[in-house]
């Protein structure tokens, strides 16, 4: 595992070799893969451990087979997901997070849990917003 370019204490003043805010930075594409609707749900679900495709599809309710396949390919390409095909009949394919993927999932799940715990405040804010602006 690589050592981070900056410690958390240094992060505010540290220059990283990549800048997600720059249009051409490859980190922007990876951020999109991880934080998009299906990417974040897939990474979060895989934190529970290795699963087969259909198990993962059932866990991530609402995702189509095509979208899950595309999401897994993108995350595999980025080094976040590992795909292992077993030479069995019928073929068995398992998906699991790489060490990088585990780190990403832990941070993502912290955000998810924070949002889940904040939903009463979010719902109240929505109600207030809708009341003052005529609702949706």
What secondary-structure arrangement, pairings included, does this model have?
Blueprint (H helix, E strand, L loop, with lengths): L25 H10 L1 H10 L4 E2 H7 L5 H13 L3 E6 L5 E6 L1 H19 L1 H15 L3
Antiparallel strand pairs: 1-3, 2-3
Keywords: DNA-binding, Transcription, Transcription regulation
Protein name: Helix-turn-helix transcriptional regulator
Pfam family, one: HxlR
Descriptors:
136 residues; mainly alpha; Arc Repressor Mutant, subunit A; 3-stranded antiparallel beta sheet; 6 helices; globular; disordered N terminus
What does this entry look like structurally?
Residues 25-123 form the HTH hxlR-type domain. This is Helix-turn-helix transcriptional regulator. Keywords: DNA-binding, Transcription, Transcription regulation. The chain is mainly alpha-helical and 136 residues long. 54% of the residues lie in helices and 10% in strands. The chain has helices at residues 26-35, 37-46, 53-59, 65-77, 99-117, 119-133, and strands at 51-52, 81-86, 92-97. It has a three-stranded antiparallel β-sheet. A hairpin with a 5-residue loop joins strand 2 (81-86) and strand 3 (92-97). The model is unreliable at 1-6 (pLDDT under 50).
